[in-house]
Design a protein that fits this description.
Layout (H helix, E strand, L loop, with lengths): L1 E5 L4 E5 L19 H5 L1 H5 L2 H16 L8 E3 L1 H7 L3 H13 L3 E5 L12 E5 L18 H12 L28
Antiparallel strand pairs: 1-2, 3-5, 4-5
Helix pairs in contact: 3-5, 5-6
Length: 181
């Protein structure tokens, strides 16, 4: 066994390996994701926007001291400040919920300042004050993951016409009139 200077603690620590220190300590708050969750079909199909949604809700949980899971208020403006495009927020929330990573415990509403309310969220892979994590993402099979993800996102393929472009907003070229014989 060797004594190794630990730069974080300013003192020597014991190491079982010859001459190398092993630091597995994380110095700040962190958001744990299990390897099982990272390998799951549900996580593999999760879009970048949905992952950012989960990350922002994790930040809110940390701001609440790791408590209040299930009562985490996050507004659309919070998501936008975090870097998620406003038009991508609702589909990403639907996707993360459909794949079993979060639950909207209280639906918010838009409006002027006195009527506006944020959504309240619960991360299913984190415990609440009165219950263990429910891990709904474990129920998603590989065969179901792609179907659930696409349908929850409301993919653009549903709104596109065969020539391309969004059918709801595409302008049609006027058809030329042919002279009557």
């Amino acid at each position: 066994m060797h004594d190794v200077l630990d730069p974080r603690r300013g003192r020597k620590s014991h190491d079982t390996r010859a001459g190398r220190g092993r630091y597995t300590r994380i110095d700040g708050q962190f958001a744990p994701y299990t390897i099982e969750m990272l390998r799951s079909p549900a996580w593999g199909i999760l879009s970048l926007s949905a992952r950012r949604i989960l990350n922002r809700i994790e930040i809110e949980l940390a701001d609440h001291g790791g408590k209040d899971n299930g009562k985490l208020p996050v507004t659309y403006d919070d998501f936008v400040r975090y870097g998620i495009d406003r038009h991508a927020i609702r589909p990403a929330i639907r996707e993360a919920a459909a794949l079993g990573f979060l639950e909207v415990t209280q639906q918010g509403r838009a409006g002027n300042a006195e009527w506006r309310k944020p959504n309240f969220f619960r991360l299913t892979y984190r415990h609440t004050s009165d219950a263990k994590a429910t891990d709904e993402w474990k129920k998603i099979t590989e065969a179901d993951a792609a179907i659930i993800g696409r349908s929850a996102r409301g993919t653009a393929a549903q709104n596109q016409n065969p020539v391309g472009g969004n059918a709801k907003f595409q302008c049609r070229k006027p058809t030329p009139k042919t002279p009557n014989p």
